[in-house]
Amino acid sequence: MIEFLKELLVVNSYTYNWGEINKVADRLSEEFKGLGFAVLKHTSEKSATCLEAFNNKDGEILLIGHTDMAQSLTGAESYDSINGRIVYPGVSDMKGGLVTLVYSLRVLRKLGLLPENLKIVLSCDEEQASPFSKEYLISNALSAKICLSLEPARANGAIVMARKGGVYFTLSAEGRSAHSGVEPEKGISAAEELAHKVIELHKLTKLDQGITVNVGYLTAGSTLGNAVAGSGCAKIDAKFWTSEQGKEVVERIKEICRKPVVPGVRLTLEQHSGFDPMEYFDQTQFIIDEVVNNARKMGLEIDAVITGGEGDAGFITASGTPTVCGMGPVGGLLHSPQEYLEIESLWERTALLSLSIVSLNERLKRNG
Ligand SMILES: [Zn+2]
User: Per-residue pLDDT tens for 172-193?
Assistant: First the structure.
């Protein structure tokens, strides 16, 4: 397992490195074919390959993951194992999860326990909110009964029952630049306009409801700072727990950004792709119960938690399919050069995933 993990680790599958992402996809595709799965490779001129695999095209259990990663390996040292951890970019998010997935399927196949009821989708652009792969995630979600996502388990070993959703915007303000001493009256300040907008937008935050609206980047004018700022831009992100909240907050952001406060300023609001929230349904509980019980049989006590971080699982629950995320190995410090994976948890979570696939399949068969 470690050898396979190391093989994946050295591939620089940063989310914009399509060629490298495809190397990971090809390697996994070979594995899936070897296990008797049919594999479909979806690609476009503007993306790497999104991988779809199934041993039953009507499979009820959907397994999802992603082949891209948030960081580039350029400048990364060679991988290190320290105190039972491997430290390396992408090790938890989510090359460890991919290894867990492949080995679970291998183990089940070897034992003759592999259910012919499985579908897999591996996004190639999850770190950009899956603008290309989203379509395949959703189409498979619509025809599945449950989904398990191979994102890493939390640092304390917990699995994930709900995630926030998010939307992203760029707000551009065009005013007019002018000498601030000689003829300031000719200027139209984009800086003043954006300042108003930041304050209005931040007022949409409701921490008690889990809604946040944040301007994370703000710029206007020239670096000399001796002229009325002629143009500027702000990057906005909003996070929320439910689709309802998401719709509402998007409306409010659009409303605020529609009209300028400073006469003469022209505003343009561009919306970028984001994740739907991964919502918890009543039917999610039986998946959690199965996983937690299986863990207990292995002598592990694990919790199911909610997290503010977004993920592909949001597209699955938005399609109405109950989902549990964080089924990958235990790790932490994701998206940082210190990202780590607990080595012991590789076998542990492989066993847990294998048991859970079998027991969930039995539950589905029993309940029709
Ligand atoms: Zn991830």
Answer: 999 999 999 999 999 999 999 9
DSSP state of 95: I
Helix axes 18-34, 96-110, angle to 10 degrees: 10
**Distance in angstroms (rounded) separating the CA atoms of residues 341 and 154:** 10
DSSP bridge pairs for 51 = 41, 122
Adjacent-strand bridge partners of 219: 233
- Ion ligand 1: residues, Cβ under 5 Å: 93-94, 151
**Contact between 52 and 140 (Cβ < 8 Å):** yes
State the pTM of this model: 0.90
Question: What's the 184 CA to ligand 1 centre distance in angstroms?
Answer: 49
- What's the 69 CA to ligand 1 centre distance in angstroms? 7
Distance from the Cα of residue 17 to its chain's centroid: 17
pLDDT, one tens digit per residue, over 219-228 is 999 988 999 9
